[in-house]
Amino acid sequence: MATVDLTSAITEQLPFSNEPFVDFSLSENKRAMEQALAEVKTQLGREYDLVLGGRRLKTEGKIVSINPARPSEVVGIHQRAEADLAEEAMQAALDAFPAWSRTPVAERASLLFRAAGLIRERKFEFCAWLVYEVGKNWGEADADVGETIDFLEFYGREALRLDCAATPIQYPGELNRLRYIPLGVGAVIPPWNFPFAIMAGMTAASIVCGNTVILKPSVDAPTIAAHFMSLLEEAGLPDGVVNLCPGEGPGFGSAIVAHPKTRFVAFTGSKAVGLEIHESAAHTQPGQIFIKRTILEMGGKDAIIVDGDANLEAALDGVVASTFGFNGQKCSACSRVIVDASIYDVFCDRLQERVSKLVPGDPVANTYTGPVISEKSLKKVLGYIEIGKTEGRLLNGGKAIETPEGGYYIAPTVFADVSPTARIAQEEIFGPVLAVIKSQSFDEALAIANNTEYGLTGSVYSNTREVLDRAAVEFHVGNLYFNRKSTGAMVGAHPFGGFNMSGTDSKAGGPDYLLLFTQAKSIGEKLS
Ligand code: NAD
């Protein structure tokens, strides 16, 4: 009964709403961000521990996280969990499971609400860490922090809602109940590009449902995860509920996926790794007594269709923001724009003009486009740019930009006249590269848009109702937008997840997400 009272107290008094964005044009916010950047700069280069069952450990090997805008600047030094640590990590999570799985849902949800409150208080500080560790500009960093708060607030409320579940009917003569109970120990494996929101979101969804987890952050962004871990502890996280193990994907990551006691894997990352996890998890290990569940959110090759009657300015705004916001390093980033032949030439001219004004620079100074995440990524994207030079007409960019600090900068790049089947129109590049494709009709535009193995996000710019109605049915993506950009999904409003090789369509931030982290138990009792 106490749970139900608290539930209504929380949900009725405080309905969910998205965290507002920080307006950095206000001098007090600009000043607060500059102060946070200065303060966090003094903390760069610190060493962080691995956390197992509340114990802080050091390993022989280290992961060194660097600032992609200034690779000689060390952001954090982290322990490197190797595959042989998987057993100890699993034991810590298993030990914590009995007590945590029986902790009242309201208490588990309260932990998330407290954590959200603490992040809100330290918003600028977290933004600053994101600027240094992954090269986000201030607005992108704020969006990541805001989404983190949203996930915590939303999943806390969703867990309370799920706790009140009832069977659709009461069978005559019986008391029928439906309980959503936790699964067990999960492996949480996030990507580096939303290193706060996705890392914290998958962790929060897992634990609020009563699971315990082994959290393996990306080697490119372990510092944000270490700060989140400390914050959860400050909010009252019991030992062993989250076990923080930075490590390489192919070593520690694959060992934890393969462990016979890993009940579920919550992964967000590339198609190749997602498929590898899918295969490994499907292979039953000796001693395994359940079918592992995998929640796999993967890559995209997202398209924006610009119809002949579209508002050109709005379409250009949307295409530029979707393609070059955070340098195209979003799963939802536009990497193909499919433009109606009737406006193709003018669109290309205007696009070229706009993109030529984007000059990459250090995100500390809040430059719109910063560096790509790593040297590996720089080489991969430049490789695709060379391919693009044989597949299209270069309108902008097409090269790396050298800086005295050796940052991983690439000039925003646009290729026009690209064939729908070209490699740069089919493969995920994950960088600031756009392919412009001409279509002769909306039929053809839809066929081009649907003709990749992915199906994550897409947008249509059109002023014709019938065109939008057709796209609603025929544009096969998990997140479809009309007359707005393809990035910037909001928790609650745009439940997020893709079709086809973009993943298992888990719809993070939506009403069905927590079901993936639970199993339903039906209890029928004969009334005497
Ligand atoms: P990635 O696949 O290289 O790595 C993701 C995570 O998997 C990392 O923590 C990594 O260490 C781990 N990993 C790597 N190999 C592993 C293995 N064999 N076993 C277990 N874990 C392993 O992806 P990334 O470069 O970090 O992120 C970019 C990718 O993520 C892009 O493809 C992007 O589209 C995708 N992404 C998808 C979404 C979505 O919601 N669909 C959101 C963000 C990013």
Secondary structure elements and their pairing?
Layout: H1 2-13, H2 27-41, E1 46-48, E2 50-52, E3 55-57, E4 62-67, E5 70-79, H3 86-101, H4 105-121, H5 123-134, H6 138-163, E6 174-182, E7 185-189, H7 197-208, E8 212-215, H8 222-234, E9 242-244, H9 249-258, E10 262-268, H10 271-282, E11 293-297, E12 302-306, H11 312-324, E13 334-340, H12 344-355, H13 375-391, E14 393-396, E15 400-401, E16 409-410, E17 413-416, E18 433-439, H14 442-450, E19 457-461, H15 465-474, E20 479-482, E21 518-526
Helix pairs in contact: 1-6, 2-5, 4-6, 5-6, 6-7
The chain binds nicotinamide-adenine-dinucleotide.
Nicotinamide-adenine-dinucleotide is lined by residues 189-194, 198, 216, 218-219, 249-250, 253-254, 257, 268-270, 273, 276-277, 297-300, 331, 428, 430, 456, 496, 498, 502-503.
Q: Would you give an account of this structure?
A:
- With 528 residues, the protein is an alpha/beta fold.
- The protein folds into two domains: 4-19 and 28-298 and 506-525, Aldehyde Dehydrogenase, Chain A, domain 1 (3-Layer(aba) Sandwich), CATH 3.40.605.10; 302-489, Aldehyde Dehydrogenase, Chain A, domain 2 (3-Layer(aba) Sandwich).
- It has 15 helices and 21 strands.
- The chain has a seven-stranded mixed beta sheet with strand order 14-17-18-13-12-19-20, sandwiched between helices.
- A hairpin with a 2-residue loop joins strand 4 (62-67) and strand 5.
- Helix 1 (2-13) packs antiparallel against helix 6 (138-163), helix 5 (123-134) crosses helix 6 (138-163) and helix 6 runs parallel beside helix 7.
- The longest helix has 26 residues, at 138-163.
- Nicotinamide-adenine-dinucleotide binds at residues 189-194, 198, 216, 218-219, 249-250, 253-254, 257, 268-270, 273, 276-277, 297-300, 331, 428, 430, 456, 496, 498, 502-503.
